[in-house]
Amino acid sequence: MTTTTPAKPSFLQSKIGGLPRTFWVLWGGTLVNRLGTMVEPFIGVYLTQARGFSLVAAGLVMAVYGVGSLLSQLVAGWLADRVGRRITLTGGMLATAVTMVALGYSTTLPAILTGMFVLGLVIDAYRPASNALVADLVPPDDRPRAYGLLFWAINLGFSVAMVSGGWLAQTGFLWLFWFDAVTCAIFGLLVWTSVKESSPARRERRQGGFREVLRDRLMLGFVLISLAFTFLYLQGFTTLPLAMTGAGLSTGAYGLVMAVNGVLIVFIQPLTGDWLGRRDHSTVMATGIAIVAAGYTLTAFASTTAGFALAVTVWTIGEIVTAGIAGAVVAALAPPHLRGRYAGVYGFAWSAGGLLAPLVGTRLLEAGPRVLWFTVGAVGLLAALGQLAIGPAIRRRTTAGAELGPSMPS
Length: 410
What we know:
Oligomer: single chain
Order of helices and strands: HHHHHHHHHHHHHHHHHHHH
Helix content: over 70%
CATH architecture of the largest domain: Up-down Bundle
Number of helices: 20
Radius of gyration: 21 Å
Distance between the termini: 36 Å
Mean pLDDT: 87
CATH superfamily of the largest domain: MFS general substrate transporter like domains
Low-confidence stretches: none
Strand content: under 5%
């Protein structure tokens, strides 16, 4: 009797094959939503130029937005577990659409402050629900690839939005708010009409809570490491432009340097995600964090556009290495009925890092560029070592929970 060897999957199948249809609905909605992400990058320019606010008033508005964002992840994580992933994701997107339009027509400082707080609260409310939905739908072995593909969609959409948003803003800032609102509404309605609820039965949803998450020392350790990594990583979007202009370079040079980040992610990340996802998650995460730390440390020696571009290239490679892995770790650590809350606590670390990065980073930059870059490099190295330290515990938890698999059929 002859036996046949199973056909080896094609290159395309190895990258995108085997994922459920519902995942691709989520992926497509995420891409559409990110194509419309135009308000956030230009909000400072909008407030100072279109509304005539002072820098102090604009800073106050952004601080209020940050507070809303900080609360958002915890509230949305709770909702994703209690009322369901589908309704939380759809509700967050539709609420964002309404808030965008209202904010676009707001003219007074109190109205804009209120609108920005609500926007911070709802704009990223989809993230815990989206992360929990992927954990529900996708088997553990495929989760790094799935989260990596979502990461790729976010970056691809955002890269296009930055270019088109800058052009659209020249015709009138109100267009940015409307375009962003429409893409949010499309995402929300797409999920509502095409995605089935995937969270556990209502009886299971009422078991446990944030107290159980806070008792999970392994998860808290991972969150602290993620906070340190976020503080490191977000320097590229907060203090790096200040450092470059302080070195005598133009804002155009910063835009050119950051274009390197987008191009590398769009072209390299889809080719490496499946291979990296099959490796030990903690080792991959620690390696990626260490590369990011090395890239930012290299910035201390940069003085030209080419030098800064080289540093960005290095830390972008580290960013690509970590893409999708953190989401898979959180999904492995979380019980099915608490996946929303676990994702919310992880998202809280990113929001907190988003607040700390400019607050602490600018003070370090005042002390000197090398003080900043050597400090954040050291923080990254400590985070990488911490990730290696908790690696064995994560492997044990991942192995113990592997048999849970997806919560629903595709």
